[in-house]
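Summary for the steering committee. One of the milestones for this cycle was to obtain a three-dimensional model of the protein with pyridoxal-5'-phosphate bound, which we needed before selecting residues for the alanine scan. The sequence and ligand used are listed below.
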Amino acid sequence: MYTAKVMEHFANPRNMGEIENASGVGTVGNAKCGDIMRMYLDIDDEGIIRDVKFKTFGCGAAVATSSMATELVKGKTIQEALQVTNKAVMEALDGLPPVKVHCSLLAEEAIHAALWDYAQKRGIQIEGLSQPKSDISEEEHVEQY
Amino acid sequence: MYTAKVMEHFANPRNMGEIENASGVGTVGNAKCGDIMRMYLDIDDEGIIRDVKFKTFGCGAAVATSSMATELVKGKTIQEALQVTNKAVMEALDGLPPVKVHCSLLAEEAIHAALWDYAQKRGIQIEGLSQPKSDISEEEHVEQY
Amino acid sequence: MEKKIYLDNAATTQTRPEVVEAMLPYFNVMYGNPSSVYEFATQNRKAVDDARGIIAKALGAQVNEIYFTGGGTEADNWALKATADAYENKGKHIITTKIEHHAVLHTCEYLKSKGFEITYADVDEYGIVKLDQLEKAIRPTTILISVMFANNEIGTIQPIKEIGAIAKKHNVLFHTDAVQAFGQVDIDVNDLNIDMLSASAHKLNGPKGVGLLYIRNGVKIRSFIHGGAQERQRRAGTENVPGIVGFGKAVELAMASMKERTDKEIKLRDYLIKRVLAEVPYVRLNGDRHRRLPNNANFSFQFIEGESLLIMLDMNNICASSGSACTSGSLDPSHVLLAIGLPHEIAHGSLRLTINENITFEEIDYTVEKIKEIVDKLRKMSPLYEDFIRKR
Amino acid sequence: MEKKIYLDNAATTQTRPEVVEAMLPYFNVMYGNPSSVYEFATQNRKAVDDARGIIAKALGAQVNEIYFTGGGTEADNWALKATADAYENKGKHIITTKIEHHAVLHTCEYLKSKGFEITYADVDEYGIVKLDQLEKAIRPTTILISVMFANNEIGTIQPIKEIGAIAKKHNVLFHTDAVQAFGQVDIDVNDLNIDMLSASAHKLNGPKGVGLLYIRNGVKIRSFIHGGAQERQRRAGTENVPGIVGFGKAVELAMASMKERTDKEIKLRDYLIKRVLAEVPYVRLNGDRHRRLPNNANFSFQFIEGESLLIMLDMNNICASSGSACTSGSLDPSHVLLAIGLPHEIAHGSLRLTINENITFEEIDYTVEKIKEIVDKLRKMSPLYEDFIRKR
Ligand SMILES: Cc1ncc(COP(=O)(O)O)c(C=O)c1O
Ligand SMILES: Cc1ncc(COP(=O)(O)O)c(C=O)c1O
């Protein structure tokens, strides 16, 4: 069901954990749908993401996309991090099953939420970033009859 | 599907054939239903059935019941022959599948028809014998839905 | 002959050893439920998908257009009832033929009881559906045309491409029951404009209890069996993994051997037909001489009744049929033979012999000799024959 | 452990070698169609009838009350839809429960779309249907009560005898989905007042793709799959002879070993439950402690999500499930766990372990150790756990 890449990231998630006094923290998803992601960002004065950690409650895809997303933003500028789309995460994982695409959206949103928190704390505006929804639920409904 | 007795009578039918100038001939059934039986009786002056032959167009049960019916009436008086019911024929064959019970009725009717023909030719009345239907169709209909 | 001569391959076929071989591991080695998430079960999901791939290719279909069922009958029921369900807003009229299998005919009767109107198109004396009548029967409310690919009793192959074209022209869905045709005749669902197609594994040397419905992408389809999310939420129930694997293997083998096998069968069939027509008096061949399944011969012998003939053949180790196996036990003569115009008493005297490629010419010879003997014996027993001779 | 530990016997079971053995001859030795008249096929008819006899006996039913189907799902669909069809003149109200299998629930949704009214009775926190509520729900228009014998997720066994008595008292038909219970629990259809019962072979070490519907004599029943005259004209389609023979054999073996096997399973199950409850914090057992299937254990681990847990167990060679296999791929938490009152996030963290009698205590020990490790690991990863610890 999952690609080898997904399984590898699930088995050995990168950057799992917390950051004390993080520059920004974002939590998205909801327990009802079974996926919650939290991203911690440590951003330096040049606006470089020095460190990133995640915690995820969710399925294999949720864990793997979180892990991959942290890898993709680590060391990047804020503007570069904003370009990390769910598509980029999925591609980096060699794809996801259709029912799991929403996990990659969640990862994208988690980064945005953490950046939003950073901007709020700093009292700045980040170009191209609007307040993320805190709750993403996007279930497919296939007609049953 | 058939008992050993039925198979034996089917494979080696007794009294198959015709009687020239028979005392009575009866034909019952119809081709539509796939069963036609014809009985030839040779009845002597004492009213004893000296000889009996049959011809049958029909299934294995039709042939076997014809054969058994001839055995049961041969050498009997007319009154005794009238007592040969379809039940007697079936019992003598160790039973018939439910869908084939009508064959035994046909055999009973064939004897009656031949006796009726004999009575007509002779201008006599046989006690307990009424004109048989020439067409017996008695299909079971099981509700399908 | 000591050996059994099995001439009833239209009723069912022997599951090939290679097919059983392919199925075996899925009973007690890879026995997982394909819906499960663990590795152990994914191999079964793959096995099911591989079978689906083989079958899709054989029909010229997309992989996601093949849905596995519990048999040909279920596929026919599904196609008709689900179409009725999904399209009843468009209309409640269905066209089929007088010679369909009971799986279609009895489903139509059911739909009739639910307020649908059914037109049963006539066939000609060879069993070919009358195309002009079929086309004329189409109304604005017609939602489905269901015509079998090849008939199970008389083997007649329908002009499916023409029917597909008619359906397309009038924008009506076209379902074909290809239970007898699949594996014997080339089928390309696109070329033939087929929207839905039923097939059954046990008719082409696969296992009993598994079939399929092809449903063209774009056709609105409802589930017939509701429950779990199997078969893309269209057909619920734990997949019959060994059965599906066996079906796939059987189709693979059937496709690989098609040309050679059917060439051989046609030779045997034609030899059988030629001898019977030449050597038995008062006999007719039912169905079309050429537009017929490679494995099918169907005769009517006047003055005798089919079951007696069958039992006597059986006593001589020959397995044959007098119509569709499903209807044995019924007293009515075959609706197919009546539809091609046979009178009842002649329809009653019919014999279907359906061969396979392993039958030998010697076995055909033996069978013809026995038919001659038995027909003769039964005619001597027949009051109809007696009358016929007397009247001559 | 190198060896696979298969703890998902509620999803499907290994087909026993003896069962495969019994089936094999019916693929390519005795392969005839049971409907055919010749001797060669009558042995298959007999094989089917023998299986029917074994199964009837196991259920305390008459032989002519057992109808073979293509699986448990088909049996459930048949029972509900055919009853709806046959009794709609009496009324259009059906009572079932919130915790039925999707084969029943989705069929009910379908019937709802056809104008039937469905009452979904509640269950208590252990998953036991509320009898008073059930009885109060009965109306003059109620035609059917359908309550599963035992639940596939949490293993709860319903008070079937009481439900049967209620149904009888109010003159309403009673159907039970016994797919999980058959072979694990004593069932006597007369004693329990069951009018219809569904079962599936692959849940008791038989093959996939074959099931049955018991229908009490006297119940008006319509066909669900129309066509040939098989199964006393009630269920059309060439019989899956090997599958039916395998079903018969599996039931025979299951009945013979019932007491001994379930005693063993109960010991293993109770040991597993005891260890997990004692050694893992923030865990609950779902379902009733005692009124549960011998092979079922179902836990909810707070703060973690089920699929992750499953995949990690799989990496350690343990096959388990987070709910019914059918619903994997769905994002909704189990409707059963919600029905017994679990909040969504706890329902998401559930694990079903269903054992068989060949599992060893060592394997249970290994499994418990792995569960402890993995739950710990996943909690360290969980933002919900982080919040919980912070708030403490
Ligand atoms: C033309 C045709 N349609 C449908 C069927 C039904 O297939 P099954 O018996 O596999 O359900 C058969 C065979 O019995 C058939 O010959
Ligand atoms: C309680 C219950 N009912 C019905 C079914 C459906 O049975 P099958 O998958 O054999 O169609 C299952 C298993 O999937 C089940 O556990």
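Key point for the committee: Chain C touches chain A through eight residues (CB under 8 Å).
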